[in-house]
Amino acid sequence: MKIKIQDPAGVVTEHDASVDDVDLDETVIVDRDGRRITEADAVERSEELLAKSRGGRPSMSKSGRSPQIGVRLPVGLDARLRERAAREHKRPSEIVREALEQYV
Fold it and tell me: What beta strand segments (E) does 1-104 contain?
């Protein structure tokens, strides 16, 4: 990825995105749409990217992470679980949660 850097004379040059420590409040760097990127913009964008990179689904708990559990299944039970999930247009994990809610 390339970034554009504008010097004080207004000359714009392209550089690799791996530019070392740049003070965005002193050096003018513009995004591909020509908008200036400030330190605040960089912080906001990096926080958004970090949030996305954590991946996964939203927590099912009201606070913090949802606990996870791994379960080994016999091949036949796994097949029946996946068939039912497909038939009900749900994920297998939803079927398992529903079954546990009824059982426990």
Answer: 2-6, 12-16, 28-30
